[in-house]
Amino acid sequence: MANLRLPPLPTIRDIIRLYGLRAERQLSQNFLLDLKLTDKIVRQAGKLAGAHVCEVGPGPGGITRSILNQGAVSLTVVEKDRRFLPSLQMLSEAAEERLKVIHGDILKFNMEEAFPTDLKRDWQEDPPGFHIIGNLPFNVSTPLIIRWLEALSNHSGPFIFGRTRMLLTFQKEVAERLVAPVKDPQRSRLSIMAQHLCEVKHCFTIPGAAFVPKPDVDVSVVHFTPLKEPLIDLPFKLVEKVVRSVFHFRRKYCRRGVESLFPLERPDLTDEVFQKTDIDPMRRPMTLTMEEFNLICHAYNNICLRIPGIQEYNYRLH
Ligand code: SAM
Questions:
Q1: DSSP of 76-103, one letter per residue?
Q2: In the prediction, which pLDDT does 144 show?
Q3: Which residues does the annotation say bind S-adenosyl-L-methionine (predicted)?
Q4: Are residues 124 and 196 in the same domain?
């Protein structure tokens, strides 16, 4: 294979100084300067030799360099802040055609069109040689993962290529929620929504001192591999509604959350859910297993199919 290592380059610290790239606190920008650490982060994605990668929010390009040095054949980076474009362009020249720089917002970026269609794999096959990697601000990464989980459940967006793997950073507490097992105090809507669709791995926590400037919160690296079969095989929005309702009353019995799915005058429908699923209505939400959420979602879905208008019911409007 051709030598895919980058030629010697100025350090990221020098790049920041040369290009005057002060981190904008208002935009929650925190940069990683230590290439040993960015190498360690990128290794969590698995083997990248020969792979295609989309990096979101490259900033001054620390993670970008590690992706290139680990042998990705093509890397497309999507960066919103135009101040980073000249330094990324310099990196692109050093990477000899492997790096494509896009000035844009990842929330509006159309990934389907940016990568070759021959990357596509059938959903049941091994994941494609296409990865998403990014250290984004948390106010972007948390809504983005929900959006990508929905795309994953529809095999759309980045998942038209098959079971695309993602390596993303989150505030430590969010990472803990993403991986929280049953009975864990962090178990929440995010745990169920992520784990019913993916194998989720909390790789490690990055020490705050590794960032410039140091963020106010701890940062964790999380890896997602989409499952061949979702553990709850129903439309994303329906599952999310049930799970959100149950965890909305996280300190109450799970009956309270299920009740909120139905009009006040129909307590019989809540009874029906617990009779059909054989789940004790006095259990706390965080003790419910994935299989039990699956049963509750199916019981709710059956009621929605039978009674028009139930699925649209929103207890907050009544
Ligand atoms: N990845 C770099 C690193 O680890 O040093 C920079 C991390 S900084 C926390 C987040 C980066 O994401 C910034 O460069 C910021 O401009 C970029 N960004 C923020 N929102 C974005 C969006 N919606 N689309 C693309 N890039 C975004």
A1: EEEES-GGGHHHHHHHHHHTTTSEEEEE
A2: 96
A3: 30, 32, 57, 79, 105, 135
A4: yes
